TrEMBL record:
Organism of origin: Streptomyces himalayensis subsp. aureolus
Record-given protein name: Uncharacterized protein
Phylogenetic lineage: Bacteria, Bacillati, Actinomycetota, Actinomycetes, Kitasatosporales
Length: 85
């Protein structure tokens, strides 16, 4: 399973969850700081990183969700799509 990135408050943060393959970064990090934090964890996991971006152990780029998108997701708004209604 590919490595994912999530945000959490600093006091409850577990940087790397081995069972879920999730890297957690402090929720107040933004932009390049997120990337730097993610790369630091990936490097600790002995996953070779390219000069830019963050790379999963399978070679795919790790998706860094924007903080805004994450907040919208947890905001409880669910879009219903009606199929053939
Ligand atoms: Zn992967």
């Amino acid at each position: 399973m590919c490595i994912r990135v999530q945000y959490a408050p600093l006091d409850s943060l577990v940087p790397w969850d081995d069972s879920r393959g999730v890297i957690t970064v402090p929720e107040d990090l933004t932009g390049p700081h997120v990337l730097r934090a993610v790369r630091a964890v990936l490097t600790k996991l002995a996953i070779p990183q390219r000069e830019f971006g963050a790379v999963c152990w399978c070679g795919e780029p790790v998706r860094l969700l924007s903080h805004v998108a994450q907040q919208q997701k947890s905001g409880g708004q669910v879009r219903m799509i009606n199929h053939g209604a």
